[in-house]
Design a protein that fits this description.
The structure holds two protein chains of two kinds. Chain A is built from twelve helices and ten strands. Chain A is α+β, with helices and mostly antiparallel strands. Chain A folds into two domains: 93 residues; 244 residues, Bira Bifunctional Protein, Domain 2 (BirA Bifunctional Protein, domain 2). Chain A is rod-shaped and about 130 Å long. By secondary structure, chain B is an alpha+beta fold. Helix content of chain B is 28%, strand content 27%. Chain B contains 21 helices and 32 strands. A seven-stranded mixed β-sheet of chain B has the order 18-22-23-28-27-26-25, sandwiched between helices. In chain B, a hairpin with a 4-residue loop joins strand 10 and strand 11. The mean pLDDT of chain B is 92. The chains are: A alpha+beta, B alpha+beta. The interface between A and B is large, with 83 and 99 residues. Strand 1 of chain A pairs antiparallel with strand 24 of chain B, so a sheet runs across the interface.
Chain lengths: 368, 721
């Protein structure tokens, strides 16, 4: 893009000057239009504004020198105007950055996968447990926890499982060694449910109580697809004046809708737990088929999810030994408990309970 | 347990609902029908109803039989249930009543005995319409054996009352119900020769034990096809006594199941009549009237319990609102409880109008004892799903756990560092416990462990973490990054007994293989010691502390945990307290767990932090500092050090200069090359100088630089030229 050499100027009247400068400006604009790379821009700058060989320098050297004195001013004005135009073109070229060709040379494969700084995944049990706790926190429940190694008193006796009661057989218990010489109530065992924390909470605090208790529990169960000696529960307890069975129903109906979606229906039917009376099992309409019946709900349209009931007066009597305000004639309450694994298995479509405790990276990384 | 609807309908001819509806109505009232299996011809020519597979909660032992379930159905539908009565032919007089004596009065409340003579032991015959033994047994797929056995089985299925038939001619003298003598021998019906304990309850004659009371009969007095004369026993035994005897002998029979949970005190004569009637259908006659030995105290505890007071207001206080605005009425309470066999005498306080009842309790419902039990029955039969869904008023403010925020900070840091959260076993083997326990003497063994590998409560999360790492590597998952937040256990013993078990929160993490980056363009790099050190530093940085440092101990000091590589591991110390250990797994332990480091090529990095100690520190609260408007100046120093000089020495020397304008310094690079002297390495130190109030002048900077060079020089570094 070499421009033709600067011609010698012979006429210096306004018309001749205008024509000469217009030609130069047109050349400058034409050159500037083709600037594509940084090198082009630099070449343009050198060609026009270079201190030694620049075209403007040449113009000022040859034309100005040759001009008669009366034409010097008119020429100077036009020269400065041209210089401004060229400088403007240069600025514009610089500000515009490299042109498309230059950029194209820098093309990359954007279809390659992105580089990922991998983050870890919260365990599905933690996640499910937090979700359940969150639902009840929004209903005004505080969070409580208790020890995993319990005494027989808290795990059984104060939960109204008297010594020798057949209901104890339903919870195969892992016991700490060397307890035989202790009184039964002081013997240490691995808690079989989170219910003992109900008693620990009531001993610490007079009513009202609204508490939700997430935790790990253990049973001497053989492991299979749905049983594990280690599992988690979330327990809830609400005690106050005038807490009724219909409050229990309403609370759990709300909680199930919050956890599984507002279309979920609940139904309650009688069950038996030593520490509640009346006791109930709660089913929710099958979240897979909406209640029409499918393989997951064994065609029943319902899935059994949790146990609950009104706190048995016998449990209040144990609490009243330390907190007399737990007078079953004055207050009432409800309690509920649910298995976290079962809920997580349903929510995430997990078929083996053992997957939760194997630490398999392939399993865990699905929960990021 | 299986229930025939044909049999139920024999008790309730007025029952109009079909089997499916009946099953649902029973289930919603806690008498759970788990499965319905229709019987009879598909074309409907013969309708034998259905078999229900039942799942009945342990407290409702009264409903684990046909009559008991018929009673529930009657209560649900408001039907009249006829009383069970079995007419027997008149007895021929006996010379004297058959001798029955209850010695163990606390354990045996009632013992009835009926003598049948000249019976024919053989096949059972259907003996009256509506109780067709053969028909029902066939539908239930219950094997017919001999009429004496079938009769007791029939009574069991009909009314849930265990009975027993003895070969009368093998009984010497009469019946005595007593505690066994220690060492006494008895061969039970299962053919097992048993040595009895003084706590066992037996039915005996005047010479010997005949059977374990309420659990299993004896071999020697068993009915055989040769038996001519029979003694029919129907009794009531105490739940605890039967439970203890059954447990001691490892037996769980239908009879023990029922007695352990409380049998019906009044059922014995009825069941005895039923069994006798079936036997007599094959011939024979009754000698004497029914012998009925009863203990008044036991009767008072069961069939003649004091009435329970029930207030309508209490029903409302506990149960709350129903969908029907009328709520639970006095009429509902009366209808439900009467149908279940209670007797109600109502009264109304003239002043308040409050309705209450004095309720007598049915002998078959020993689970009913208190007002709340009656309220439950009202709710149950009324139907749980007819109650409204209401919400209690809010109580007080919601409190989170005091350490919830700290736990979340720790978890968040590990997750951000690319570690997955895991939950491992709460148990480990005694060997693993001894290896990893901070105090091996405090490991807590289990009395009945699941297995030897799970013999103790974990004193550390490390065994579980190692198992999970090994598990992944065995499955050819070679990049492992896991952490666990869990409880560890330590016990104190008192006179050899585990006295207290202390539980502490802990964090373990493990890593092997690549750093958590997935890139198509850059080669991955394996985890190394300083990567996990960085994680530990980041965790600790979430807490407010004056000082944090890392150190190690010579192997011979015996302070380093044995599972760590003695020269590639460190202790983390926060404010002077040991908060954990981490580093490379000891190659010996890796080998012991078949973690093949040659195949994987990488080191296993592992660590454990004692969160109980860390949680004593407050979470760091961020405080913003003024950011200087003046330009920072960075100066690099290329240092050469002897291999024996560690960074910490250099770091401390610079810190001790206390130059306020030296705002940051760190190692930019560590390298070793051949141009250095033997046993030397090079380190590039980058230092940044900046003032809050001025631009630093060249002379000032020169001064600082000289001081830094001097200080590191004294610490053992020379400038590389």
């Amino acid at each position: 893009m070499t421009n033709e050499a600067i011609p010698n100027l012979t006429a210096f009247d306004d018309t001749a000057l205008d024509k000469a400068f217009a030609a130069l400006e047109a050349q400058a604009r034409e050159s500037a239009a083709g600037l594509d790379s940084e090198a082009d821009v630099e070449a343009f700058r050198l060609e026009w504004l270079g201190r030694k060989q620049g075209r403007l320098n040449e113009v000022s050297g040859r034309w100005l020198k040759a001009a008669p004195p009366e034409a010097k001013k008119a020429l100077g004005v036009r020269f400065n105007a041209l210089k401004e135009v060229v400088e403007g073109l240069l600025d514009a070229a610089l500000a515009g950055g490299p042109g498309d060709a230059a950029l194209k040379a820098e093309a990359i494969d954007i279809t390659l996968p992105g580089t990922r700084r991998l983050t870890g995944a919260e365990h599905p049990i933690t996640r499910t447990m937090n979700e359940i706790v969150g639902v009840f926190a929004a209903l005004g429940y505080s969070v409580g926890v208790g020890p995993e190694v319990e005494t027989d008193y808290y795990n059984f006796e104060s939960m109204n499982f008297p010594p020798g009661h057949p209901a104890r057989d339903t919870q195969d218990t892992l016991v700490v060694a060397g307890q035989d010489r202790k009184p039964l109530r002081d013997r240490l065992l691995l808690r079989t449910h989170t219910s003992p924390v109900q008693m620990r909470t009531m001993e610490q605090q007079p009513p009202p109580v609204r508490i939700v208790i997430p935790g790990k529990v253990h049973r001497n169960d053989a492991a299979d697809a749905t049983h594990s000696p280690i599992f988690h529960q979330v327990e809830g307890l609400c005690v106050d004046a005038n807490i009724t069975f219909s409050d229990l129903k309403g609370t759990l109906d709300h909680a199930m809708k919050a956890l599984f979606g507002s279309a979920v229906k609940t139904r309650f039917f009688p069950s038996f737990f030593p520490f509640t009376e009346p006791s109930a099992d709660v089913q929710i309409s099958c979240i897979f088929c909406g209640g029409k019946g499918c393989r997951k709900c064994k065609q029943s349209g319902w899935i059994e999810l949790l146990g609950c009931g009104m706190v048995d007066p016998a449990v209040f009597a144990f609490a009243a030994e330390k907190q007399p305000a737990y007078d079953a004639k004055q207050i009432s309450g409800f309690a509920f408990g649910m298995g976290v694994e079962r809920i997580a298995m349903m929510k995430y479509g997990i078929s083996e309970i053992g997957s939760f405790f194997a630490g398999d990276m392939r399993f865990l990384s699905q929960f990021v | 347990m299986k229930i025939l609807t044909k049999w139920l309908r024999a008790y309730l001819p007025g029952l109009a609902d079909d089997d499916a509806q009946l099953a649902e109505d029973l289930t919603l009232r806690g008498i759970a029908v788990e499965g319905i299996y229709p019987l009879g011809e598909p074309n409907g020519s013969i309708d034998n109803g259905s078999v229900y597979e039942m799942d009945i909660t342990t407290n409702r032992v009264d409903a684990m039989n046909h009559y008991g379930i018929a009673r529930e159905a009657a209560a649900i539908y408001g039907l009249k249930l006829p009383e069970l009565r079995y007419a027997l032919p008149d007895a021929r007089p006996a010379g004297k009543p058959f001798p029955v004596r209850i010695e163990a009065e606390d354990e045996c409340g009632r013992f009835t005995a009926r003598v049948l003579r000249d019976v024919t032991i053989g096949e059972s015959r259907d003996w009256f319409a509506g109780a067709e033994v053969a028909t029902y047994f066939a539908l239930l797929e219950q094997k017919m054996i001999l009429n004496a056995v079938d009769a007791t089985n029939f009574a069991w299925l009909a009314m849930g009352q265990p009975t027993h038939a003895f070969d009368l001619d093998k009984i010497e003298g009469g019946i005595v119900v007593r505690r066994a003598r220690k060492g006494e021998r008895l061969k039970t019906l299962d053919g097992v020769e048993r040595v009895l304990d003084a706590d066992d309850l037996v039915v005996a004659d005047h010479k010997k034990a005949l059977g374990l009371a309420g659990v299993m009969g004896g071999w020697d007095t068993m009915i055989t096809p040769e038996t001519k004369n029979v003694l029919v026993e129907a009794a009531w035994f105490d739940p605890v006594a039967v439970r203890q005897t059954a447990r001691r002998h490892g037996l769980h029979t239908d009879a023990s199941h029922r007695f352990e949970r409380g049998a019906d005190f009044n059922a014995a004569p009825v069941a005895s009549a039923l069994v006798s009637a079936i036997l007599l259908a094959n011939g024979g006659w009754i000698e004497g009237e029914l012998v009925d030995a009863r203990i008044a105290a036991a009767e008072d505890r069961t069939a003649r319990r004091k009435p329970v007071q029930l207030k309508l207001s209490e029903v409302w206080r506990i149960l709350g609102a129903t969908e029907n605005e009328e709520g639970i009425t006095a009429a509902t309470v009366e209808a439900v409880l009467t149908a279940l066999g209670c007797g109600l005498a109502s009264s109304q306080r003239p002043t308040t109008g409050e309705v209450s009842w004095s309720v007598t309790l049915p002998s078959w419902r020993l689970d009913l004892e208190r007002e709340i039990d009656l309220i439950e029955e009202v709710a149950r039969v009324y139907g749980y799903n007819r109650f409204a869904n209401t919400l209690p008023a809010f109580g007080e403010g919601v409190r989170a756990l005091p350490w919830a925020e700290k736990e979340a900070a720790v978890r968040g840091t590990l997750l951000a560092a690319g570690f997955h959260e895991a939950i491992g076993s709460s148990f480990c083997s005694a060997d693993e416990g001894a290896l990893t326990a901070p105090q091996p003497a405090q490991v807590v063994p289990l009395g009945n462990p699941l297995s030897e590998e799970a013999g103790v409560l974990r004193p550390s999360l490390v065994p579980g973490m190692l198992a999970m790492i090994a598990g992944n590597l065995n499955r050819d998952v070679n990049d492992v990054r896991l952490f666990e937040l869990g409880t560890v256990f330590g016990g104190t013993t008192d006179k050899g007994m585990a006295d207290k078990v202390e539980e502490r929160p802990a964090l373990a993490f493990g890593a092997v293989g690549s750093l958590p980056e997935e890139s198509a363009l850059h080669a991955s790099r394996a985890f190394e010691f300083h990567d996990v050190k960085g994680v530990v530093e980041q965790v600790l940085a979430r807490f407010e502390m004056r000082a944090m440092y890392f150190d190690r101990f010579p192997a011979e000091a015996g302070i380093m945990p044995e599972w760590l590589h003695p020269y590639r591991a460190a202790r983390a110390v926060a404010d002077g307290v040991t908060v954990g250990w981490f580093g490379q797994l000891h190659p010996r332990e890796a080998a012991a767990r078949k973690i093949d480091t040659r195949r994987h090529g990488d080191a296993v990095l592992i660590g454990e932090l004692y969160l109980d100690r860390l949680y004593k520190l407050p979470l760091r609260r961020p405080v913003a500092r003024e950011i200087s408007r003046y330009q920072p100046v960075r100066r690099d120093f290329s240092l050469v050090l002897d291999e024996s000089v560690e960074w910490e020495t250099i770091d401390r020397a610079i810190a001790e200069l206390r130059i306020p304008e030296l705002v940051e310094w760190r190692v930019r690079e560590v390298f070793r090359d051949a141009r250095l002297g033997k046993g030397e390495y090079a380190l590039l130190l980058g230092a940044t100088f900046q003032a809050q109030d001025r631009t630093l002048r060249e002379e000032e900077l020169q001064g600082f630089q000289t001081r830094v060079v001097e200080a590191v020089g004294k610490a053992g570094a020379r400038l590389r030229v």
